[in-house]
User: Fold this.
Amino acid sequence: VEALSAKLDAGGVRRVTGEVEALDREEDGRGWRVRVGHEWLAVSQVILAVPAYAAGALVRHLDSEAARLLE
Assistant:
């Protein structure tokens, strides 16, 4: 975890921690909308550092087959 964090920091990546309440694609399909702490964030990429079943719940409405495999 520390090594990944260091690489992300060195690359100028903004890290947000907290409970993800929702995940959705931007309307243009080029990015993501992530709701954390009752606030929507627009981002280009997302890393879900959660157990597979939690990732499945977040992507269920985006890709039901991926969600099934994760759960």
